[in-house]
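User: Reviewer 2 asked us to show a designed sequence for the structure in our supplementary figure. I'm pasting the structure tokens here. Could you produce the per-position amino acids so we can include them in the response letter?
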């Protein structure tokens, strides 16, 4: 690349910086939306399910055993006792109205069953309209009942002077996210989504705007070559995207408390590869669709939906149908989300992230090459 070529690239980049400065909407889109999305997803989206609204009908309320049993639910952070009732009609009304999600019905002979050595029944009514939450809530109930059974069995043997029965004691040790905080899992994925969407959307809209206004024809008439024009357009938005990345990392660490255990240098290097590919994809979209409306629609369709649905951002890939799992290998955000979570939570190194590094490099190289090749210095 000659000195003259570098001067032309510098001129195009400087012209684009001035254009961005004069367009507060684009600048606001680039700077405000990432912060807004991080706040919305970081605080609003949570995979932690607790305080399940519950109503109780204790038909054996006079029994001390039933009251002790209910204390296990009252003292659990996973349940929130909304109220008590003495009929099924109120249970039905409250579940239908969405006021409670679950109802516990303790039969009137609950204590009699336990004192006579029999298995005591317990009725559980769950709103199954949200299948995932209902399944988790029923799992919480089974855990509480299981713990109660173990304690009850131990106390029964102790009262009779018998040795404590042998039981299995599973002691879990959780690595990397000891508190199972879903925010630590979500926020790195949000950063990947922001980089992908903002980068491709900015370049596609801003270049498409030049086609609409007719200023692109003026650039085409200059001695600037197509690769120089693409690189010059690329530099300002790379700067903005990198700034958004730094803001995202700072918010993740200091606002949401996500631990950072890896290398900042490795993170920024791999992020640069991903950002380069995303920006080149936006330039390619602007070449295909020369209107802002079409460019924004294509950018959303090709970035936001795949990133949210097929990258493992929220839904685990191993739980998807086999055909969809194969498709996810073509989604760049899949690899970048792995990079972010590995570096943030596990302190991953380049040896662990070699496959992801190779794919992100190929993504940046292929997208940039196609964008340069498709960008012709022609009006039509």
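Assistant: Here is a per-position design you can include in the supplement:
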């Amino acid at each position: 690349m000659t000195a003259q070529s570098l001067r032309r690239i510098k001129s195009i980049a400087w012209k684009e910086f001035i254009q961005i400065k004069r367009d507060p909407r684009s600048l606001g889109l680039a700077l405000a939306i990432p912060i807004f999305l991080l706040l919305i997803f970081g605080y609003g989206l949570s995979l932690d399910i607790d305080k399940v609204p519950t109503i109780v009908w204790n038909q054996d309320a006079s029994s001390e055993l039933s009251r002790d049993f209910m204390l296990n639910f009252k003292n659990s952070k996973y349940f929130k006792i909304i109220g008590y009732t003495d009929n099924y009609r109120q249970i039905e009304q409250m579940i239908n109205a969405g006021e409670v999600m679950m109802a516990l019905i303790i039969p009137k002979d609950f204590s009699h069953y336990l004192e006579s050595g029999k298995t005591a029944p317990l009725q559980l009514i769950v709103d199954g309209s949200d299948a995932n939450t209902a399944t988790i809530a029923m799992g919480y109930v089974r855990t509480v009942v299981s713990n109660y059974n173990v304690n009850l069995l131990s106390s029964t043997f102790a009262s009779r002077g018998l040795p404590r029965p042998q039981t299995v004691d599973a002691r879990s040790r959780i690595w990397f996210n000891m508190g199972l905080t879903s925010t630590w899992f979500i926020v790195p994925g949000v950063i990947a989504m922001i980089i992908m969407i903002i980068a491709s959307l900015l370049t596609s809209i801003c270049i498409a705007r030049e086609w609409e206004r007719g200023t692109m024809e003026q650039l085409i008439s200059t001695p600037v070559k197509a690769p120089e024009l693409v690189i010059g357009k690329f530099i300002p938005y790379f700067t903005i995207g990198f700034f958004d990345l730094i803001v995202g990392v700072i918010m993740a660490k200091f606002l949401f408390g996500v631990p950072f255990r890896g290398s900042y240098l490795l993170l920024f290097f791999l992020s640069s590869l991903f950002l380069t590919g995303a920006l080149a994809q936006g330039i390619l979209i602007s070449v295909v669709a020369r209107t802002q409306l079409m460019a924004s629609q294509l950018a959303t369709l090709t970035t936001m939906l795949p990133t949210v649905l097929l990258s493992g951002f929220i839904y685990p890939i191993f739980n998807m149908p086999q055909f969809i799992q194969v498709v996810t290998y073509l989604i760049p955000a899949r690899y970048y989300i792995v990079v972010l979570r590995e570096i943030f939570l596990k302190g991953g190194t380049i040896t662990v992230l070699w496959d992801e590094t190779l794919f992100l490099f190929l993504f940046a190289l292929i997208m940039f090459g196609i964008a340069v090749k498709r960008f012709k210095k022609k009006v039509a």
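For the response letter, you might also mention the following. The mean pLDDT is 84. The longest strand covers residues 52-58.
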